Amino acid sequence: MTPELDPGTAKRALRARYLAVRRSRPPAEREAAAAAVTAALVEGLAGVRTLAAHVPDELEPGHGRLRDGLGRLGARVLLPVVPPEGGELAWAVDVGRLAPGRFGLLEPVGPRLAPGELATAEAVVVPALAVSRGGVRLGRGAGYYDRALRHTRPGTTLVAVLFDDELVDALPGEPHDHRVTAVVTPSGGWLDLPPDR
Q1: Which of 1, 85, 109, 178 is the most buried (most CB within 10 A)?
Q2: How far apart are CA 91 and CA 108, in angstroms?
Q3: How far apart are CA 57 and CA 137, in angstroms?
Q4: Is the pLDDT of residue 15 over 60?
């Protein structure tokens, strides 16, 4: 009988697996997924006045479409800024121009806002490698979003954008993990997750 892995070790193995699958996805599948998840998010977030999102990299669902789609909502859109050092995300309003930041991630060029600015968002679109049906989110492992989400208000919609096969029955969770309240997938669209997880 194999001993059960501790959550940190299990998460590292899962991250490697999900990233490998993302790298193997054909460009046409990524493009179709980007169109589908963007349409579902725009519909699901209609009426939101302030939201926080991210700029998906080429492996993430929504790459090349998500930011423009959310811009059509007419909402104030906050995008993350990874600090040169430390683990607390800053934010900036998306004013249309992006520049490469830390880790090569694209970020807005406008004035930096404090981490607490996230409390103004009614919804946060969070990146994820996988999410369980109970709302446990598997991120990339640096903890930026778990720290950032401490600043959200109760009742804030936390929605993760995934490929279809990344919504799974269970994932290892830890006490510091912030659970999401909804997911969007290319085939399933917007799915609210059970509130008592």
Answers
A1: 178
A2: 9
A3: 18
A4: yes
